[in-house]
Design a protein that fits this description.
- The chain has 239 residues and is α/β, with parallel strands linked by helices.
- 29% of the residues lie in helices and 22% in strands.
- The protein is built from eight helices and eleven strands.
- The longest helix is centred in the middle third of the chain and has 14 residues.
Length: 239
């Protein structure tokens, strides 16, 4: 393990396309370009870009959901390996399966029980249920089968109980972002995470979505999304 996570840096050296699969069941592609991202402990970051503009990739890379290729991650100026990243990073809302040949999703209860045994952050399940306002009758479902109002809180609870320090959400458009943040009330736990030195990454479609509660807004200016069709000479020839 490297560093104590005062500062986190993601460096993207080359442009590439990443295949994505988010908690909403949507498959797509993210176009990432050369960039440097720096995050400090105890802060919330709003990553603003269009769909496919690279915001989802930031979350996936910082949680080891996709392997590094033309990218590097530094923790307190020391280069991190995949094990370091996986130990610290948590992709909120992700479906978690057992490592069997036939993938079977684990229930929220199983995930929390495993976290209690392995990390000892809590003594009993009831403490987590109370702190994250979880419905006991829904814990036997996997995260993907929980209603969205509980899914985000439950996923955050699993990550927190597992001693994660980097909480990355999937890229969300305005409607999904509102449903995730407000209807699930997941934002109620952000101050707690900040005060304990965690980093929260919120990729979304517009700056207004994160105004008023993030510490810093990072806009991804991806060259692939700067085209203006009306200025194209071929377009002007026929229009």
């Amino acid at each position: 393990m490297v560093g104590i996570l005062e500062k986190l840096k993601l460096v993207i050296y080359e442009d590439r396309i990443i295949n994505t699969d988010n908690p909403f069941g949507e498959k797509g592609r993210d176009y990432i370009c050369k960039n440097n991202f720096v995050f400090e402990k105890g802060k919330i970051y709003g990553i603003v870009c269009e769909y496919g503009g690279g915001g989802e990739a930031v979350s996936l890379l910082l949680t080891n959901e996709i392997p590094l290729k033309q990218e590097k991650i530094f923790i307190d100026d020391s280069e991190a390996n995949p094990e370091d990243i996986e130990m610290l990073g948590w992709y909120v809302g992700k479906k978690i399966c057992r490592n069997f040949i036939i993938k079977k999703e684990m229930s929220v209860r199983q995930l929390l029980e495993n976290a209690i045994k392995k990390y000892n952050r809590y003594e009993k399940m009831e403490d987590i249920i109370e702190e994250f306002h979880l419905s006991p009758d829904k814990l036997h479902y996997g995260l993907s089968r929980n209603c969205e109002w509980q899914m985000w809180r439950a996923s955050l609870a699993v990550g927190y109980a597992s001693n994660k320090k980097i909480f990355c959400f999937p890229w969300m458009n305005t409607l999904c972002f509102y449903d995730c943040m407000y209807n699930s009330s997941v934002y109620r736990f952000f101050k707690k995470l900040k005060n304990e030195g965690s980093i929260i990454i919120l990729p979304t479609s517009r700056e207004k979505n994160v105004q008023g509660f993030v510490d810093e807004v990072i806009r991804i200016n991806n060259p692939r999304f700067e085209h203006i069709i009306s200025e194209n000479s071929y377009f002007k020839e026929f229009f």
